[in-house]
Amino acid sequence: MIFVLKPGHTEQDLQHLIDRITEVGLTPHVSRGEERTIVGAIGDERKLIDLPVETLPGIEKVVPILKPYKVVSRDFKKEDSIVKIGSVPIGGRKIQVIAGPCAVEGIDILREIAGEVKALGATVLRGGAFKPRTSPYSFQGLGEEGLKYLAAVREETGLPVVTELMNIRHTDLVDKYADAVQIGARNMQNFDLLKEVGKLKKPIILKRGMSATILELLMSAEYIASEGNTDIILCERGIRTFETETRNTLDINAVPVLKGLTHLPIVVDPSHATGRWELVTPTALAGIAAGADGILVEVHTDPEKAVSDGNQSLKPKKFAEMMERVRKVAEAVGRTA
Amino acid sequence: MIFVLKPGHTEQDLQHLIDRITEVGLTPHVSRGEERTIVGAIGDERKLIDLPVETLPGIEKVVPILKPYKVVSRDFKKEDSIVKIGSVPIGGRKIQVIAGPCAVEGIDILREIAGEVKALGATVLRGGAFKPRTSPYSFQGLGEEGLKYLAAVREETGLPVVTELMNIRHTDLVDKYADAVQIGARNMQNFDLLKEVGKLKKPIILKRGMSATILELLMSAEYIASEGNTDIILCERGIRTFETETRNTLDINAVPVLKGLTHLPIVVDPSHATGRWELVTPTALAGIAAGADGILVEVHTDPEKAVSDGNQSLKPKKFAEMMERVRKVAEAVGRTA
Amino acid sequence: MIFVLKPGHTEQDLQHLIDRITEVGLTPHVSRGEERTIVGAIGDERKLIDLPVETLPGIEKVVPILKPYKVVSRDFKKEDSIVKIGSVPIGGRKIQVIAGPCAVEGIDILREIAGEVKALGATVLRGGAFKPRTSPYSFQGLGEEGLKYLAAVREETGLPVVTELMNIRHTDLVDKYADAVQIGARNMQNFDLLKEVGKLKKPIILKRGMSATILELLMSAEYIASEGNTDIILCERGIRTFETETRNTLDINAVPVLKGLTHLPIVVDPSHATGRWELVTPTALAGIAAGADGILVEVHTDPEKAVSDGNQSLKPKKFAEMMERVRKVAEAVGRTA
Amino acid sequence: MIFVLKPGHTEQDLQHLIDRITEVGLTPHVSRGEERTIVGAIGDERKLIDLPVETLPGIEKVVPILKPYKVVSRDFKKEDSIVKIGSVPIGGRKIQVIAGPCAVEGIDILREIAGEVKALGATVLRGGAFKPRTSPYSFQGLGEEGLKYLAAVREETGLPVVTELMNIRHTDLVDKYADAVQIGARNMQNFDLLKEVGKLKKPIILKRGMSATILELLMSAEYIASEGNTDIILCERGIRTFETETRNTLDINAVPVLKGLTHLPIVVDPSHATGRWELVTPTALAGIAAGADGILVEVHTDPEKAVSDGNQSLKPKKFAEMMERVRKVAEAVGRTA
Questions:
Q1: Domains, in order of start, for chain B
Q2: What does the buried/exposed string (b/e) look like for A255-266 if buried means 16 or more CB atoms within 10 Å of the residue's CB?
């Protein structure tokens, strides 16, 4: 950590800072420049993280040097991690396509959609049994019944299933039925929920919050990892910006940035990132071209009647076209799909 | 709800839309213009909210007419609501100042801070026993012990206490000790938590999420209200923007906008909205000038040693200066403090 | 245009609105619903655009129906436009790569860079003679001398050249030397400059402002087109968001959105959109996968000594690798490069 | 400037960095920590600003220490600057109110509005003769005729006048008629225009760009100052965020932040910052409470018929109410109005 002192600071301010650095077991290193005095704190700066160091007298600026996350960083582990959902490896050469309806609406429709996406090449089935809805008056999901349908369709199709966990009280329930647990964007900083899934022996898909920085996403992954579960898949699903033509803005830059900072696999969700079905294929292709390890996409056989997110769901015919194009772009970047 | 059809839509598209509108019990109203055909759906459009109407063939744009929230709206209740924390009314003529440390750190320090803020005019004590921290390695709060300290200090000072609830499993615990329950910005869309506190018989301070729109804040308030608890105080605490000089950007516009849209009282948190103690007083004054019913401010007798948010905490001396200025501005806008 | 009246509006308010609509030559169309009265203004609503219609008494909301741009819209022209820079068509099957240094620094270095990028497949040369710099103390460009170097290198290599115009007084000068004129992000709403280049007989590359919406970008293109010049190439170069890991956030969604709204060709600038050379290739590939017609990329043979934007410039070796990958992805999406 | 080297950098990388720092005349200062090596460059780091230092091999992070602006900074001049528009001092104890129509529409209406605002306490008249409009089809201003009307009304009322300059070619014209020149938000980074007005002997009102950081605003002020004109008034007029209830978000934090960083006076524009007349008074009061030296507000005697921005214009009656409240809040913060 580096401390820049204000011009005109007193010697007492400087000594006070030196004392504080020394107290926590770090070594101060003073450098007096023409316009500013700078003090480095040498050692494990994480000891300083909780201290309100900017409040010390005479301080102009404090610059952290180390990254505040550890286990999930590339420094910690050089090679790419591969996380398995059931037997499906996310993060290897093959781009995996996780597809299904936004919400589980019934056993028949789920079976129908699962059959379609499997036939077209999806390797994991998604579907929400608990739905985070902006309005209390909207459909909130089928709950355990929905989980049972997912499990039943897994038996029939062999597709492992991913579903969202929103409520800490449902952890055991979701753990019982799902092959991977999704933490939604709105819960990315629900820290108790993160700790809870950090204790599971199951892969976690952690979606980036709609206004979370890349650093905050990694800190939330660190929460999960710090409890022992490092089977984490990060998901870029669009961030909130001033643009109103689309529901969110897919932060495509985040894909290569994350590849540099962490060893964890990364998937892209073009359905939420755009909010409009006709934009799903081009942005899915962009995600793969940028280096994503998979895509998470909403598919529905009758979007017009979907109880949630129908506007952004692909029909099987469009999904088929997308898959064909996904395969070509995957090959173009040296992968398969 | 109004539907704008694409130029070149078919008669079949139009008929299909009319059928869908009729099916849910609304009345379609077609108007053919020179460049666009427009269809209004007359009746309670909330019936259409869950339907993916944009996905219907031939639709260019869908415009909702009604507000999706009800109980918390000004349409529902014309006069301002007054919500009491203990015996302290929030929303009346008097501007209330809720002050205290970011986190409860110990009984002695809490007692000391509470004594100071009470003497200087604060009427409610704040302090976190459960802390939402970005890093899993940061201090996470004292838990129930912290709640006990809050209760003890309430007994001693007579100040009602506000504390944050993050984990649905701690609801009873927090309910047992606190006079008002705070839902933090990161949990503004933790819908299960909202439903839970909607069942309490206790006022809720609902903080705006850092990238939540005003509409979403009101929808989250509606979640609480829809469970029966309408004792809700909204809190503007800064939103996330591109600006990096401050931790967040206080959305001062939100104060009069909310006053127009809802009958609920509104408080402003200048500590989180700026992240720097020297900006707290000017923005607190701005909040009051703009019409806020109270302010929520972090105070610490030794910010340098605070375990959390010391950089944005006022020392008692600065808090005293702020209070003096708060009183003057309150009077200038026809209120007291 | 649709007007939603407030609940409780008077009959006089309604009549007043009807009068105003009629006055400008449109036809009012009243529809009384259960909760709201709605009035449509039928006809060319552009007549209402300049009127402060929201200020009329009793109005709750005003919803425009038509797009405010005309000449640049898909409605106006269905098929894709192809814009030629010199003899290089932008918008056809071939993805064009516009490459070169950020700033023209000297004839030798420009010649060297131009030689490299041409050999590797770039078809247009870029380079700034007038540089928009945040600091008045930074290098501001070589001015006319730089333009002469660009023209000289064009003679030698046959590559047409693109350069930025910032100052209306330099229009003739830039027009004299350049094959295409770039309007930079900071000038996207410099309306006088837009009108000026609208009178040129030369293609314009219009870069999206860093906080401009897609609609505003199209309105700025309309400014140019309204003066008679429809040879416009739109450029997505990243928008400003809260994320700080990258200089800007490439709005990849904008590519397919723009393809739907306008017939103009679209290029992507991965250098400015990321600000870091190691992110240029993945985001360039993403742009092509999403449907862009070309990319605009900064290349320097000695980025360490570049006077501007060296951090985001590719060395020829990296540019060669990018070109190889660009070709593969272009083919995967049915194009060439 | 501080350089943090990557873990695993080579000794050659370090030596190369040291050489580069030495070359530009600064002194390198190496500090080897447990996890990172850090190099400080001691001396005037502005020498490094134009160099792409992040591109040097082995560099993880570069941290500037000094502020890149000079003349406009508090370090350069400790006491508040007072800038006079005509004989009206901006930045002193008195809060000045600059009021008038968005656009000059005609001599009679201008005279009428000027009479009203003067009678109610405004001390400077505003009005645009050249209007930056999003659409080429909107009213673009009366041009020189409008300037003449402003000058005529100044003669009659004694109010000095402020008007916007958009086009470098109109500099002499605007200089001839106006008492202060406004640079609009869209031109905040039109650097040639800034240099031009930097040569005038007339105060400049520099409006913050809608996505400009506080740092960029100060750099643009520095552009003007670097040409010799330090009579600059900064204007906070709202920034672009994700919120859609208001046209912009007034960044109230910016007022005290700017007061700390610069000696220049600061005014707030509540009309553009909100876009809705009913929000103008509360946000104007907030601006004053936060420490602004004045407000810039749109007033129109018949907003319904205003050719521009009628939705955000106050009628004289509302303006009178605002002025009364402005005076009270000004007094509450130890000023007059």
A1: 2-63 (3.30.70.1140), 83-332 (3.20.20.70)
A2: bbbbbebbbbbb
